[in-house]
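re: that chain from earlier
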Amino acid sequence: MLQVQNEVRQFIARTRMISRGDRVIIGVSGGADSTALLHVLVQLGGILRAKYRVVHVHHGIRGAEADRDAKYVEALCRKYKVPFRVVSVQTLQFAKKHRISTEEAGRYLRYAAFDEEAQNWEKEADTDKRVLVAVAHNREDNAETVLMQLCRGSGLKGVAGMKPIRGRIIRPLLTVGRADIEAYLRKEEISWCTDSTNLQDDYTRNRIRHDILPKMVSDVNRGAVENITRAARLIGEADVYLAKHAQEILDECVIRDEESCGVSTADLVKQDPIIRTYMLRLMIGMVNRTMKNITARHIDDMNRLAEAETGKRLNLPYGLEAVRTYDMLWVGKQGFCGEAGTSKRPEGVPTAEMNEYYRKHFSFDVFDYDDTMVIPAGDDVKWFDYDKIDDVMEIRPRRTGDFITLKDGGRKTVKSLMTDEKIPASGRDSVPMLAAGSHVLWVVGYRISESFKIDDSTRRVFEVRFKGE
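^ sequence. v structure.
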């Protein structure tokens, strides 16, 4: 077996990339890499026992040259007896409409075409076998991606480069060098097409491919590509570990509702800086599908916001914003939390008389507890474990970031609670809260937080009585 075939076979086995009976869509442009990918997978067909289809995307850019490529791929597929489909797209129009680069538009449309074909294939057969999409990225492509992400200021996830498997996307050639691929095709006497746009320096990747990476190899270290991809693999492993650890911490302290999530600034700032960074990125991921345009600068700004004064805001990509409230940091769609850090007066009560209103309607007491006492069951008096309260308490209206704890140890925003309780929006600012910071002990007339309930360890009771109108 030829060296490239053997390398790909071992890589597929090592990563468990393709299983027997899987259905694989191969993206073939007609260039050297994708032509080699098709040839190798066909040659390994007896070992892999997979089924293949080829999709060629005609980008509508290069005129006769693009037509030539499509015809070449079609002829190649006939030779290998592999089903073939060409998908025509209008890349320039798509780029203009969505205000993105031609390079980015082409990439989006290619993967959309692959995914559409995969979904169609899934519908055709009643089988549990997967439909995968094989693309022809090689070792240099991976190194170029790492350099691009470094220049963009990406975090460890971006700098980790391309993954061998991402969802249904697989990259069987990822450990094979470009020179080895071309040598393999020449040995097998297989021609390939050259995309003239790959020879131009109009695109960022082409400038890295033609100028920067070759200089690194010739002037810095001949093993630069291998060293970059090896470092990317180690960075990827570190990224997975750190993300898992940060997620475990975040699961213990995050509060979520329909459009936002928040974390106590005390819980955040006590973490090591790298874990804080991951927690913030994970929070953005909870409220937004993609992290593509979230850079290290945005995360640094959020870190500073966590230590800023109440009410400060930070605009983020994708129409997101981060907001610093009394003792919380929140992330959500812009405008998700109204007047962050403010308190509104109860309906009908002048602001100057608000404190007098609360003093008139609430009374408090602290006394020793024994297990013969009967805990009040009414809505107008509540008992709390006094020694579990470790912050200054106040009676006030709701504020952005308020939450209660639940029986399972999770947290729920007061906003979500009021929605569940069907409290009219017009009356929500009239509901008094007994709160210690953002942690609400009692949404008066509704629920109390599980964190402060009386239990077998209680020694002192904090009693709160509410007298209505």
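Residues 262 and 330 are 4 Å apart (CA to CA).
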